[in-house]
Amino acid sequence: MDRNANVYPNLCFPELYILKNGYKEFFQEFATFCEPRGYIQMHHKDYREELHMIRRKVRLVAGQRRRKGLFQMANGH
Fold first, then answer.
1. Which of the seven top EC classes does this enzyme belong to (predicted)?
2. Per-residue pLDDT in tens (0 to 9) along the chain, 77 residues
């Protein structure tokens, strides 16, 4: 989203990190580095519908990629 809204290298978030064992474990050990200073689990009841919406979008995109790949294979590309 940042790269869609801004032109590199003028990004709001120029660096991206992959956290080994995820954000939950990172937050437990290094909460002082996190903003905001609270942690809400992904499956929290207040965000259940948002999680379902995101998962539907992911499945839709994955299905489109699979169909595109099958189409390309069928055409020899």
1. hydrolase
2. 888 888 888 889 888 888 999 999 999 999 999 988 888 888 899 999 999 999 999 888 888 877 776 666 666 65
User: Residues 40, 47: contact at Cβ < 8 Å?
Assistant: yes
Predicted model pTM: 0.47
28-48 residues labelled b (16+ CB within 10 A) or e (exposed): eeeeeeeeeeeeeeeeeeeee
Q: What is the DSSP string of 15-48?
A: ---PPTTHHHHHHHHHGGG-SSS----TT-GGGH
Encoded tokens for 45: 């009841």
